[in-house]
From TrEMBL:
Protein's recorded name: Stress up-regulated Nod 19
InterPro entries: Stress_up-reg_Nod19 (IPR011692)
Keyword terms of this UniProt record: Signal
Residues spanning the signal sequence: 1-24
Pfam families: SURNod19
Superkingdom to which the source organism belongs: Eukaryota
């Protein structure tokens, strides 16, 4: 049985001061934006089966570009959107890597990460390969905007930033949980360990994220949702296997002097920040369990205080959450101004959920189908270098496993000083 370093670290790596200054921004017309829709390679699942896959060298815009949006959904063989109550889309992550051109054939055959592959993670603070992706959501994908306002974009394909002898490439890491005929559909989608056909020695041979043997108190999450495992089905249920794939649409512009680059940060509500002298150490757990708390109507709150080594102007913010989320809020630091301080850390963004009301894909009743996005007026919110941000992730007060609270923020290090053009 693979340990945490393979299931989480590798799976997630190969598998978030009000400024008084005003800025004018040059806006180019929407006609300069290009768009393309791609379809990934397919994968097969049967009722109750888990699929954890890595799709290497996915199709992507070529050249020196600025990506404006990246949207993904799960489809069947006929190109139809798959509803969450049939296959729960736990997550998709788009991860950047550099591939040594001279070793491409060997990598294509063996995906040997020790030889010829260099990953380049986002600007977030989590340790190692924890949460390294540039884009990624889950069941809320269809209802969460990824659009970045002009003239801001994520710069990719810059030849001066690609190591000599390498190519810039991308991969998808995904987890999909087929819940057709599931005995406990909610439990399957939360990766409850007691619902899966885990081997008898699972807890003896599986390590947690801390590298120590997994505790018997681990009741559910990524470690119990490994590729090809089977969730318990209703007695007598028999359904067909089917092939699924990802349909993804990317909008981009050719890079020029009018574009303003953004840095992408993922902040994790489980991050337990420590210090070793002048060194800041991050300990992201990626997921957490919400215990049962009786006689309380208050939501469960998971909180992390995260120092930002490098700040910038907030351009976009949203969250990756799961069904049951109430909201998530990112606060700035309490600051002293002229011998006084703000009464509280200012709210940088509150992201709220949208729940489905019907049966069609994108509006599945009871499921989280979207998270709101914050688009502050450019220049209105500046995060200072070294500022400590507080992330609060709130879920309903119910037992839940594998809960996630990831805040996504795009920051611009500087703003253009050009006049706005209508």
């Amino acid at each position: 049985m693979r340990n945490i370093s393979r299931v989480v670290v590798l799976s997630l790596s190969i598998i978030v001061l009000l400024s008084s200054t005003t800025h004018s921004i040059y806006l180019k017309p929407e006609s300069h934006i290009k768009s393309a829709t791609f379809v990934s390679e397919n994968f097969e699942v049967g009722p109750g089966q888990i699929a954890v896959k890595n799709f290497w060298d996915i199709e992507f815009p070529k050249g020196h570009v600025g990506v404006k949006s990246f949207d993904v959904e799960l489809i069947d063989e006929d190109g139809n959107s798959v509803p969450l109550y049939e296959t729960y889309f736990h997550h998709w992550f788009a991860i950047k890597y550099f591939e040594n051109i001279t070793l491409s054939r060997n990598i294509e055959q063996y995906h040997d990460l020790r030889n010829g592959i260099v990953f380049q993670r986002n600007s977030g603070a989590c340790q190692g390969y924890m949460l390294p992706h540039y884009w990624g959501l889950g069941g809320e994908s269809r209802g969460t905007s990824s659009n970045l306002p002009d003239p801001f974009a994520v710069e990719l394909g810059n030849p001066t930033k690609i190591p000599n002898g390498f190519k810039e490439k991308w991969l998808f890491n995904i987890m999909a949980i087929d819940t057709r005929g599931a005995y406990d559909r909610k439990g399957c989608s939360e990766c409850r360990c007691n619902l899966f056909n885990l081997p008898n020695n699972f807890y003896n041979v599986t390590n947690g994220i801390d590298g120590k043997p997994l505790s018997l108190n681990y009741k559910g999450g990524l470690l119990c949702c490994q590729d090809n495992l089977q969730c318990k089905l209703r007695k007598g249920f028999d359904g067909p296997r089917r092939k699924l794939s990802l349909r993804y649409k990317i909008r981009w512009v050719d890079w020029d002097e009018h574009q303003v680059p953004l840095k992408f940060y993922i902040l994790d509500a489980t991050d337990r920040v420590k210090s070793n002298g002048s060194t800041t150490i991050h300990d992201c757990k990626v997921e957490y369990t919400i215990p049962r708390i009786h006689d309380s109507d208050s939501p469960n709150v998971q909180k992390a205080s995260i120092p930002m080594e490098n700040g910038g102007y907030l351009i976009y913010a949203t969250t990756h959450m799961h069904t049951g989320v109430v909201n998530a809020t990112l606060y700035g630091q309490k600051i002293f101004l002229s011998n006084s301080f703000s009464s509280d850390g200012r709210v940088l963004c509150t992201s709220t959920p949208k729940y489905g009301m019907g049966k069609e894909a994108g509006n599945e009743k009871g499921y989280l189908v979207g998270m709101s996005v914050c688009y502050p007026k450019p220049g209105s919110i500046k995060i200072e270098d070294g500022e400590i941000l507080t992330l609060e992730s709130r879920y309903e007060n119910q037992f839940r496993t594998g809960a996630m609270g990831h805040f996504y923020i795009y920051l611009a290090e500087q703003l253009p000083n050009k006049d706005i053009k209508d």
